[in-house]
């Protein structure tokens, strides 16, 4: 079982947004030392709670400060870009940091209607997403009418972030799939994974591969770990009411705030599904997820307000697989 980490460059209330980017770099340095397999970053546009809108730029900075860990996107939202441009960006990264670059692709649009309008894409159907992935791959493999530069031999593995019909797209193209969120607890998960494996059409010898993405946080007690999970869950719960995904806040401030009934229900549901607890409890949850999914890799996406507590959680999580 491999262990990797996705960092969203989360902003924190009372701190400069740019500090979130430096924290992403420092977190990558630490996770490389701790033995993580990959370090991925995300793409979000005009979101107050997230500082990174350009995975390629952030990955370049991280690559310059690390030496071995694989680096990638979780993911580049392909509807926002032309396939040639994406291929060029990641070919450049591969040329700068050979043998270390991954390209995870998703089809989520902007968080709000004004963002979607600014990005120039109001919809992204599965068929178009599949075609655009194919175009990116053709550019990366040198089989497109145009040659993406630099034209070197380095390989950039592709991954599909499975939201909605993403598993079907991944299977048709012979690509690994990253699954997470509500789908991990869905009753139809087993059937969908079986369908993915059966429909998988190998590309250049590829095999079906599943990465399970989970919000994993470890502390001395289950209660402390749930407090670590609270800021991220609160931000998501509040966004459903306000339309704004905000910066992380201290748990004490969140507990002191007025909670509306819908928010309370969302927080309780979020805490129930987050993999947060002692090291032994988290190990058991991850083992069950791996057994249910057949995943060869866990991609941890946990985050919290307290950076020192997050660093400690990352280290404890890495120790589970040593």
Short description:
This protein has helices spanning 18-34, 55-65, 83-96, 113-119, 126-141, 166-173, 189-199, 222-242, 251-256, 261-273, 279-293, 307-320, and strands at 2-7, 38-41, 70-73, 76-77, 103-106, 158-161, 177-180, 210-214, 216-218, 275-277, 297-300. It is built from 12 helices and 11 strands. The chain is globular and about 60 Å long.
Q: Which helices and strands, and how do they pair?
A:
Blueprint: E1 2-7, H1 18-34, E2 38-41, H2 55-65, E3 70-73, E4 76-77, H3 83-96, E5 103-106, H4 113-119, H5 126-141, E6 158-161, H6 166-173, E7 177-180, H7 189-199, E8 210-214, E9 216-218, H8 222-242, H9 251-256, H10 261-273, E10 275-277, H11 279-293, E11 297-300, H12 307-320
Parallel strand pairs: 1-2, 1-11, 2-3, 4-5, 5-6, 6-7, 7-8, 8-11, 9-10
Helix pairs in contact: 1-2, 1-12, 2-3, 3-5, 5-6, 6-7, 8-10
CATH architecture heading: Alpha-Beta Barrel
Q: Uncertain regions: pLDDT < 50 for 5+ in a row? A: none
Question: Largest sheet at a glance?
Answer: 9 strands, parallel
**Element-level helix/strand string:** EHEHEEHEHHEHEHEEHHHEHEH
CATH superfamily: Luciferase-like domain
Mean pLDDT: 95
Shape from CA axes?
globular
- How does the helix and strand content classify structurally? alpha/beta
Backbone CA Rg:
19 Å
The fraction of residues in strands falls at 5-15%
CATH top level class name: Alpha Beta
Q: Kindly state the percentage of residues in helix.
A: 40-55%
Give the strand order, joined by hyphens, for the main sheet: 3-2-1-11-8-7-6-5-4
The figure for the number of domains is 1
Number of helices: 12
Q: CATH fold name, please?
A: TIM Barrel
Question: Would you count the extended β strands for me?
Answer: 11
Cα-to-Cα separation, first versus last residue: 10 Å
The assembly state of the depicted protein chains is single chain
């Amino acid at each position: 079982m491999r262990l990797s980490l996705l960092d969203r460059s989360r902003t924190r209330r009372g701190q400069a947004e740019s500090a979130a980017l430096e924290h992403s770099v420092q977190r990558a340095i630490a996770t490389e030392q701790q033995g993580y397999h990959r370090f991925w970053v995300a793409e979000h546009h005009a979101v107050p709670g997230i500082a990174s809108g350009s995975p390629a730029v952030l990955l370049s900075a991280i690559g310059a400060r690390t030496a071995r860990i694989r680096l990638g996107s979780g993911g580049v939202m392909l509807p926002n870009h032309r396939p040639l441009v994406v291929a060029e960006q990641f070919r450049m990264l591969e040329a700068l940091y050979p043998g270390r670059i991954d390209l995870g692709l998703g089809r989520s649009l902007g968080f709000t209607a004004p963002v979607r309008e600014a990005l120039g894409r109001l919809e992204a159907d599965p068929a178009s997403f599949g075609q655009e992935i194919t175009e990116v791959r053709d550019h990366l493999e040198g089989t497109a009418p145009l040659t993406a530069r630099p034209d070197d031999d380095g390989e950039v593995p592709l991954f599909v972030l499975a939201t909605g019909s993403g598993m079907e797209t991944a299977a048709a193209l012979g690509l690994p799939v990253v699954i997470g969120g509500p789908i991990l607890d869905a009753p139809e998960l087993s059937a969908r994974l079986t369908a993915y494996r059966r429909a998988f059409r190998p590309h250049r010898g590829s095999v079906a591969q599943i990465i399970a993405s989970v919000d994993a946080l470890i502390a001395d007690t289950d209660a402390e770990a749930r407090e670590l999970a609270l800021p991220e869950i609160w931000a998501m719960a509040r966004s459903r009411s306000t339309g704004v995904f905000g910066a992380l806040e201290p748990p004490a401030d969140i507990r002191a705030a007025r909670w509306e009934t819908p928010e309370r229900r969302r927080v309780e549901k979020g805490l129930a599904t987050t993999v947060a607890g002692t090291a032994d409890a988290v190990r058991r949850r991850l083992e069950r997820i791996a057994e249910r999914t057949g995943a060869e890799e866990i991609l941890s996406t946990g985050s919290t307000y307290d950076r020192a507590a997050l660093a400690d959680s990352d280290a404890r999580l890495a120790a589970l697989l040593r």
